[in-house]
């Protein structure tokens, strides 16, 4: 994890060892108002299935959650997002039993809840990026596979865990296999 200041000078804030502290961060970091950084690594941790971590402004790491690669998921690759209560949300490539990914929530006590497991059918599969959250608590993201043509989806997950596929890529000039996430505007449009 690094910082680049306004003069272009880079400072390494944390170097992962590849052990229980995590390995291979594949997404970016989220910064809170206190200067803490949150992120995920796709491997490392006690089961080598990835972790969610917090770095304080001094670069001290706290493991927020360690994935087991079983029903709780594994291999988180995208960014995490945070709500006003401090809960973290993200996606993993693996789900039970390390199938085609899931969306998770980790509360401030470090307890994980699986909000949705993908089937790699019309609902999507392999969410490679994290999710964004709107003011109503809905989560939005993409899956690399699944959908009507198995070429990926843009999805919405409401606060009750109900998934809606907002768009299914068809490979007819509309793109295929979305690997990155989405961003939204005030009107509710999504971009990716």
Please give a structural write-up.
- The chain is mainly β.
- Helix content is 0%, strand content 33%.
- It has strands spanning 2-4, 10-12, 30-31, 37-41, 51-55, 61-66, 81-82, 88-92, 102-106, 112-117, 132-133, 139-143, 153-157, 163-168, 183-184, 190-191.
- The strands form 5 sheets. Strands 3-4-5-6 form a 4-stranded antiparallel β-sheet, with no helix packed on it.
- The radius of gyration is 16 Å and the shape is globular.
- The protein starts with a strand and ends with a strand.
- The model has no long low-confidence stretch (mean pLDDT 94).
Proportion of residues in helical segments: under 10%
The number of helical elements comes to 0
Annotation, overall tally of beta strands:
16
Portion of residues in beta strands equals: 25-35%
Order of secondary-structure elements: EEEEEEEEEEEEEEEE
Biggest pleated-sheet summary? 4 strands, antiparallel
CA-CA gap between termini: 25 Å
Coarse shape: globular
Q: Low-confidence runs (pLDDT<50, min 5 residues)?
A: none
Main β-sheet, spatial strand arrangement? 3-4-5-6
Broad structural category: mainly beta
The overall pLDDT average reads 94
Rg value:
16 Å
Describe what is shown at a glance:
The protein has 192 residues and is an all-beta fold. Helix content is 0%, strand content 33%.
Topology, please?
Elements: E1 2-4, E2 10-12, E3 30-31, E4 37-41, E5 51-55, E6 61-66, E7 81-82, E8 88-92, E9 102-106, E10 112-117, E11 132-133, E12 139-143, E13 153-157, E14 163-168, E15 183-184, E16 190-191
Antiparallel strand pairs: 1-2, 3-4, 4-5, 5-6, 7-8, 8-9, 9-10, 11-12, 12-13, 13-14, 15-16
